[in-house]
């Protein structure tokens, strides 16, 4: 059984942040005593007010930025291990595509960086484009695509290497509401097919509840986790879930937690 089909309490641990602190030059304490465990198959949203350190937490998980103190440990490593490039896929708010390259070449990029010839991974590139619904646009250039389509390319590029963990930093924040709903639905369908683990940063209570099985609420100054809400509603979630009393109840709980987080920061 893929881990995300297992009950939350029974999934193997993937990643643990323990008492992580990040202080930037100039003395800004972005995170202090940040504790978070992510298990294989989890869809975890980091929800919190602006400046509470959500993006900093993601950057620390990538290993491109180091904590000032505390530990970030990965299952199966002794704690000091470097992440293999195939272990992480990252999607940002801006799709950050190469404008001069066709869709298929943008998606091929993570392999090209590793020196893998296109012929060897052509099938993987086309398969992931099919999964995000863009197989007909494989030869298009980014300028020919809508904002939502560019984001799909960015997601395809993050998924093409089949990473253990996908990090998403407000990927849909710049999109209109209808496109955002559609991409939320499609992201869950993709997860259903691929079974990946996701850490998803968002400001949106509605988005976090719709997507996640765990909503982790953070407070600012200093940034840290203050509450966690388990969304115990079955996947695959549909429009019926989006309009259900159950969804409204979870949104109310998450919204109250966010108010407490903001109140703590005031
Ligand atoms: N490179 C940096 N140098 C100094 N301060 C920084 C740096 N990066 C982030 N910060 C500060 O650290 C704090 C946390 O920033 P971060 O971007 O992680 O928050 P966030 O929750 O993702 O915010 P938002 O939701 O607005 O994107 C903020 O006060 C920010 O100004």
CATH architecture: 3-Layer(aba) Sandwich
- What class would the helix/strand composition place it in? alpha/beta
Strand tally is: 9
CATH class: Alpha Beta
Give a short overview:
By secondary structure, the chain is an alpha/beta fold. It is built from eight helices and nine strands.
What would you say this structure looks like, in words?
The chain is α/β, with parallel strands linked by helices and 266 residues long. It has one domain (13-265): 3-Layer(aba) Sandwich (Rossmann fold), CATH 3.40.50. The chain contains 8 helices and 9 strands. A hairpin with a 4-residue loop joins strand 8 (214-219) and strand 9. It starts with 12 loop residues before the first strand and ends with a helix. The mean pLDDT is 90. Bound molecules: adenosine-5'-triphosphate.
How is this fold's topology laid out?
Blueprint: E1 13-23, E2 29-39, E3 43-47, H1 54-62, E4 69-74, E5 88-91, H2 103-113, H3 118-131, H4 147-159, E6 165-169, H5 177-194, E7 197-202, H6 205-211, E8 214-219, E9 224-230, H7 239-242, H8 245-265
Parallel strand pairs: 3-7, 3-8, 5-6, 6-7
Antiparallel strand pairs: 1-2, 1-4, 8-9
This protein binds adenosine-5'-triphosphate.
Which key phrases capture this entry?
266 residues, alpha/beta, Rossmann fold, 23% strand
